[in-house]
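User: Can you help me understand a structure? I only have the sequence.
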Amino acid sequence: MWKAALIVVALAACGGGKKKEAAKPAEPTTTEPANGSGAEAGGGGGAEPAKPAGPSPEELAKQAMTEQVDAGKKAWTEKKCDTCHGADGHGKGATPAVIGDKALPEKAPAKAKARKGVAFKTAKDVMGFIHDKMPPKKPKSLSDDEAAALTAFILSENKVSFDKKIDADSAAAINLR
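Assistant: Let's start by predicting it. Here is the structure, written out as tokens:
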């Protein structure tokens, strides 16, 4: 009998036989109130609800890279790269391929005039060539951003692996071989 009394006393001391569930934090909300004030409903001016975490740095880098490749595709058309290199970039007449199996050889072909002595070992080599030599009738007319975007587009089409937006620093780390 005394055991039963001890159990009753122990249960009463710890608030009964059931544990209380811990309060769950409020789910973050992504919608604004209809009044646009950003305050909690009821207009109490309380704290803003927690906002969901934004994209990760990796996701942001991939998004920037995708946007740059898209900008390069647009520049390909706007700067009329296709008139010399072909719509698909596989070359046209004496103009070399920049996309496909024969594109971007490390050593310049013997007949290459503009590329004489220029080796394509890294994306930086390609980007520098595009910036300094293209288009042939208006060399150095492309901005750094346009040259980087065109390089990103060409590398993407050639299945060269890179995981962030191309600039002078990142391009030097992208090996073509």
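Now, to help you interpret it: Residues 131 and 144 are 7 Å apart (CA to CA). The helical segments are 2-13, 57-78, 82-85, 123-133, 144-157, 168-172. Let me know which part you'd like to focus on.
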